[in-house]
# Entry
Amino acid sequence: MFDIREELKKLPDKPGVYIMKDENEHIIYVGKAKILKNRVRQYFQDSANHSPKVISMVRRIKSFEYIVTGTEVEALILENNLIKKHSPKYNIMLKDDKTYPYIKLTVNEMFPRIYMTRKHDKDKAKYFGPYTSSGAIKETIDIILKIWPLRRCVKKFPRDIGKERPCLNFHIGQCLAPCQNNVSQEEYNQMIENIIDFLNGKHTEIIKSLEDEMNDASENLEFEKAAEIRDKILAVKKLNERQIIENMSMEDRDVIAFARAGGEALVQIFFIRGGKMTGREHFLLNNADGITRNELITDFVKRFYGGTPFIPKELVLQEKLNDEEDILKWLSFVKGQKVIATYPQKGEKFRLVELASKNAIIVLEQFGEEMQREKRRTFGALAEIKTALNIDFDLNRIESYDISNTQGIDSVGSMVVFEYGKPKKSDYRKFKIKTVFGANDYASMEEVITRRFLRYLKENEENDSNGKFNKLPDMIFLDGGRGQINIVIDALSKLEIYIPVCGMVKDDKHRTRGLIYNDEEILFNTNSEGFKLITRIQDEVHRFAIEYHRKLRGQTQVKSILDDIKGIGDNRRRALIKHFGSIDNIKKASVDELKSVETMNESAAKSVFNFFREVPHKR
# Structure
């Protein structure tokens, strides 16, 4: 039996992280402390200064753990990692879990390439962003490739120079063919320097250079070339017009302000890169009621920059950070150079903060009713399900499973995850059935559940915080009835894991009818939010299973056709499908187009080309 009063006496006077748990051993709060002994004891002292949120949390605490760290910065990093891993009920959480796109210029390799990515690796490449629109990035890259004919292939240089003929892009004037030594590194690197200037917002210089080039072409009576350059100039000017905020400094900075209404908080960020605003984004915060303005901005900065790969040189903030020194040390360590925070009271930066704050107020007002509807669809729906099932534990994380096959062929299992009533697609998982042959849904479900939770046990034992299966659901929803439920309960019992399981059952017309829990069928009002959420979960897990099953069937069909072609093995087959997307597109491709695919040479390209034309009756 955990005796809180006795355990409080054992707390050390060192920095670290504390973990609060409820009666079911669920983690409900994670915090950091400069001195664990002082911070944790404060929660259990009778004090009128506690907010309603803290009072509610303390009532549910049945035990706690703590981890001592060497420094306060280490405690901050550990706190952030544990919050991301466990999503505790009483911590402030970002409702918008986005991965932002960047433009990557691979200056770390010979003859660099440019493309969009959502990863920000420490690989000495240059990254520009983040951007809030992948469409805007694609348009920018298209403009760059129209002006500067960079290579688009993934060849390794200097290893692959001269190995193959230049691809189609060279023949249509969209690549200088460095693979054939057709361009010097000096000339190519000059293009890269121009592109860096362009991405840093130096559009005026680029336009001036293009105008000079257009005038020269016109004077030389090269009117077609002059028209092409004119189109490039118009594209650059159009892009330049979208940069809506000019800044005197060329530094990268984020401007952060917020608005509150009742228990809701909305944070607005302006992303300023190279002195221009490249985008803005807003974030809704959960559990933001009853905390100070400084706590709100502090928690947001920790959550947001603990999950985004890019950290600017400066944070321009509406309120002062708590633990400012530790947070800036941490951000500077992650970025690899000094990060500062400013709290302007006048001048240009202050106007930006005011603008961000006004935008936050407008968005909060605009989406006030929408947020209430979203609450009813998610938290309200979960509350209805809890009441109907007569359960007193939270349904923060629901996992749902389904099996799909065609007459027992290519059986697959799907796992979808709903957190706080919304799908969390990054946690979806697919299973190709390995041990069951034929149409046996029960045995297939047993295999899926066993494999999924064996992985959980393994990752938990290895303390793998980055594992794909390291979280347990609060409840499992199955697309099936009593038979499926019993199979899953037995499989979990063998692993000594005990998770509530219920089935989502359908009527004779294959429409969602209700839930089966504890061997009792529970019906819902079909207009209720709880019923609609169950329907969404059932439809989603079924869709995900069917989609995976169709993909496997398609791969099997592709393999049977392409494997008949002489000289086409696994690597070339995969490369062809990846490049063209379908067998029909491969059939239509010319020899040159086929030859441009990675791993393909002229002999293999002709083999594929001739195969689909010499014996069409076989296809």
